[in-house]
Amino acid sequence: MNTQTIYLAGGCFWGMQKFLDQFPGILETETGYANGPGDSVTYQQVCADSGHAETVRVAYDPSLISLREILGYYFMVIDPLSVNRQGHDTGIQYRTGIYYTDPGQLPEIRRVYEAEEAKAGAKLAVEVAPLGNFCPAEEYHQKYLDKNPGGYCHIPPRFFSLNRSSGQE
Q: What's the count of helices (H) and strands (E) in the chain, helices before strands?
């Protein structure tokens, strides 16, 4: 199996992880902290403006879901014009970003990004950059909304069952 990975910062990582987990072809997700100073950080440090972004590592099978589709879903649940804020969450850790480790993904990322920018009619606040570092989040942050169904997230709950409502299972 050909597995590829992309890292998506989209505000609160709890909701982004739950949202992405529903789609066939997404093999694994992991919440963590990316592109800040240093490779090791705690949630408390991130909340104290360490400079890391709450990010989801997304491993996927490109024969089942394309990067274009994943990014389309990503843009569906973020405000791409908002700087360091998604929903009620504010701070540098809630910035939006698409971080890649494979430069071969960059042309597709740019195509999707430019289409979203044209749709918005304004410059996007979404970073596009190589992954500098990624530190997995603490275990209690993994699949948090599955463990705590009433937990807050800027993504409306109806988006967590798009795959079921479309009849694709």
A: 6, 8
Q: What is the mean pLDDT of residues 149-168?
A: 80
Q: 90 by DSSP, 3-state: which?
A: strand
Strands 127-130 and 96-100: parallel
Catalytic residue among 12, 47, 135, 153: 12
Joined tokens for residue 50: 């360490």
135 is an active site residue: no
What domains appear along the chain, each with residue ranges and CATH number?
4-165 (3.30.1060.10)
96-100: strand order across its sheet: 127-130, 96-100, 4-10, 53-60, 26-34, 134-136
Can you tell me the distance from the alpha carbon of 74 to that of 148, in angstroms, rounded to the nearest whole number? 22
Q: Is 1 exposed, middle or buried (0-12, 13-18, 19+ CB in 10 A)?
A: exposed
* Residue 164: pLDDT band with limits 50, 70, 90: low
Helix (H) or strand (E) holding 159: none
Helix or strand holding residue 100 (H, E): strand 96-100
